[in-house]
## 1
Amino acid sequence: MTGFQTVPHGAPGTAAYRSRGDLTHALIAKLGAASDLSASDQQAVRELCVDIRRVPAKKNILRPDERPSHVHVMLSGWAARYVLQKDGSRQIVAFLIPGDFCDLHVTILGRMDHGIVTLTPAVVGYVSGADMEELPHKRPNLLRALWRAGLIDESILRAWIANIGRRDAAQGMAHLFCELHTRLQLVGLIDDDSLPLPVTQEDLADALGITPVHANRTLHKLRAAGLIRLKGGILEIPDLPALKAFAGFTLGYLHQAQLKRTWDR
Amino acid sequence: MTGFQTVPHGAPGTAAYRSRGDLTHALIAKLGAASDLSASDQQAVRELCVDIRRVPAKKNILRPDERPSHVHVMLSGWAARYVLQKDGSRQIVAFLIPGDFCDLHVTILGRMDHGIVTLTPAVVGYVSGADMEELPHKRPNLLRALWRAGLIDESILRAWIANIGRRDAAQGMAHLFCELHTRLQLVGLIDDDSLPLPVTQEDLADALGITPVHANRTLHKLRAAGLIRLKGGILEIPDLPALKAFAGFTLGYLHQAQLKRTWDR
DNA sequence: CGTTCCCTTGACACCGATCAACTCTGGTGG
DNA sequence: CCACCAGAGTTGATCGGTGTCAAGGGAACG
């Protein structure tokens, strides 16, 4: 926690972090995906963060067993939720992208039973636990939206299990790419058939329950099959329907029947 | 749903189903595990079920894509939460035991993204969606307890992923047994180092992401190692600490720091 | 310009899948 | 009481996907 750089509220340097409103863009898009949020609800979301900090890549945002005093939300950058085994092996159980909460559960359970580590430089919002506790009473719409977001995360976990348990490495990797594509699209971070993939092959391996060596070979196999192109951290999907068919991907589990674009371009 | 036998409120035949109070025993033990429930809270839980039905073994309680009109809760028997792939393979993502909710999420998400099937004959409680919606407002204690139960289920999902992704079949199976032992103990269904295991080897295989043949061999391996004994659907654990050590099991993820026995014997 | 990640590639071993046959058990009906 | 049957468990032989170990290459960074 110490050493994280606090972001001045006004305006950091790069265009990507232009203003505080920009930073909550993904969060509002995600929460508003199911039901519309009133302007005042949206404003409440924007004012949620008592603090905003930059975190370098490969730093723990939350360690296993920690008892956080705040709720953390990803505002930019990627992170991974991981479980550490006693033998030192790591299993990534979720990728976190802007708009995702790190520890929505912690107001109830108190203690982290896993860790969260940044994969890229990130900007993290801090929400006070007290605000989080009372928000639902003041804004029932937001209670539903937050609950809904948590339940979709749970649904993603179930799909993740099926991914590891019942698909081979190539299908599993393809499925993961389809999921990331859909989620990034939902929060308005991409709008075509390519996506940023700022993770190492070791991260991919830990997410799929395979070894880094095999992740490399699987990646090559998908490339050779013409299902993906990957260079410079950008993943291109030449034929999205083909990739989805290969992976057995359906978006039912993401519960986006009512998906609509709450952002404008 | 049709064809399920409604249980008369008074008193079915067997000792196990003696009264309606008995049936909610596990549920109340589970919800009260973290924070005490007042007598009136407990009474509210008991009166939650508008209907109680018996379901034979191997019947779907909820099918994928279904839009249930009620919330379902296990009162006796075992069930499995499963994801079906397009190629027909099945991945079990959770075992449900008495006290577990089948579809707590459905008031928010509406549609099932997976199925639930009984593994044994079971008794299922039906809670009206409307009651479920308004319960939190009337009984904040119960809101917390229900939310907590859901979050622990989510935590179990993460451990399940690590189980499949980063443990070999024998360790994974051992870990599953440790989890089931702990959960059954929590709801007061066992009190020594043996537990009922009313599932087929195929069920075990689908839970661990392996084949039935390999599940069989893994079971034999654990038996040969002296870690378990299994006969007649009863699993005996001669040396629980040894099994936990072998599996790498810790109960942190079940969030039972405050575990206390709410039942009496 | 050297260090440090990260990616890549090869050879080989092993865990678990697949296919197939057989046994055991409990239930059903003659 | 016995014959039959279906579902579950058991076992062997063989195959393939992944893991493991090891070495080298390439790009970013101080």
## 2
Amino acid sequence: MPNAFVRKLTQFAPLGDEEISALVRLCEPADLRNAGDDLVCEGDRPQHVYLLLDGWGYRYKFGRDGGRQIVAFLVPGDLCDIKAFLLDRMDHSIGLLSEARVRAIPAIELIELMDRFPMIERALWWASLVDEATLREWLLNIGQRDAFERIAHLFCELWVRLQVVGLVDADDAFDLPLTQEGLGDTTGLTPVHVNRTLQRLRREKLIATRRGHIEICDPRRLAEVSGFSRNYLHLTRDGPLDINLRQRLNSRNGPVGAAGH
Amino acid sequence: MPNAFVRKLTQFAPLGDEEISALVRLCEPADLRNAGDDLVCEGDRPQHVYLLLDGWGYRYKFGRDGGRQIVAFLVPGDLCDIKAFLLDRMDHSIGLLSEARVRAIPAIELIELMDRFPMIERALWWASLVDEATLREWLLNIGQRDAFERIAHLFCELWVRLQVVGLVDADDAFDLPLTQEGLGDTTGLTPVHVNRTLQRLRREKLIATRRGHIEICDPRRLAEVSGFSRNYLHLTRDGPLDINLRQRLNSRNGPVGAAGH
DNA sequence: CGCAAGTTTGACGCTGCTCAATCACTGTGG
DNA sequence: CCACAGTGATTGAGCAGCGTCAAACTTGCG
């Protein structure tokens, strides 16, 4: 119900009404972008900080011989690079996987907000540290795990991240606007091998897929086989979400918890 | 010859005498640690920010089945996690590859320094952004390149980073206190395959190795074969210091915010 | 209906892994 | 000064996970 941005940040710091309404105001004015558009390109000198309100984005780089590597996903509520305007130029690009609602925040506006609300500043830094931790976990994922584990691990991560912003339904299903080629560019595998690995994940009743949509049939076992642990997402505030998640793991009919107090 | 920390930071922002001497003071008191020691362990709640003055460190994580992934190297002049004390617990560990001189900086001290010297703050953030960009490049490295390119790329990066702090000699050689197993844990390869790949790099006259020591025989070609570009290290003070940024940074300490001192 | 994008399948081969043995170096103690 | 042990480097043989190529199939959409 509250927007994804607020939901996410309340995971990271306790925010009062005044802070929340400041965050809500920060989301305006948003505009609509098309799937496939780039928000930022490698080499740009970024002027804005982008806040994704709706839809999916992804960070990517190209290798010399044309291989694309996806280095992060952006889901609703994610903010790109609080501090990117400090650097000279972007070393990677940010694109959109789906139609998206995006708010381009002028850097100065964000800085003022953080100066005025220390708790918001804290939450934003926290989120930024989680992004970095996620990069490290992805490195572990690609470096140490085989295809089956890699893809399973990725799905676990997305499942948790989307739960935080309320985008996972009661059947543990969510939208995933990603082709098998995109999955391959994320995990360092070829589309063909991704296909075969997905088949195995389905055969073992861990997931079910429809077009642009995935259902996590057995979250616990999926986490087990992939060595997934939520630690690196740093959601460990003894907040309500944690409890909800735990409940969901035990009995699979619990309602999707809201993040409020 | 200034210390490595100062050398590195002056790459990122123009620092005056007062700022430099503040940085030099920050390096005291340092203490000596042994190779193999851990500075920080996964699960710790870090109290200090560590500054590496001499020797090599590395960040690493373990997978469920015991595989170790090295996710970053720390070389002299590198500072760990300006903002780590914000998070609840470490999601990875930091160890030492060699005997090292380390300064454990209390978080408060660093914060005060950054408040007092905006240019230092700027340089530290810049360095932190470079660390993150490096993670992305490593992901590209492991995800898209084969063994030969991966290792070549890693050597290119280290060559550049060590040059910045004056640790590469006239023959393009430098100390590399890393076993082939360590190289494997960095690149997602087995020690055996690392060995064979190193042989090929030597055979093609790209590098030469002695014990704990490496010489880059042909830097240009090594960069070529691995697709290395130094962009992501953001050493380009070419278009830097743009006036906008200076203004933004100044306005931050100015009378704008209610939360400043 | 027909095209385009994405998914699926099959055959085949290579990169990189496994297991296991041997070799080289360095520091230690007799 | 040499025997020895420990760590790391090197080598070999066999194998499998994943890549490559190419074709067929399925779905969405104008």
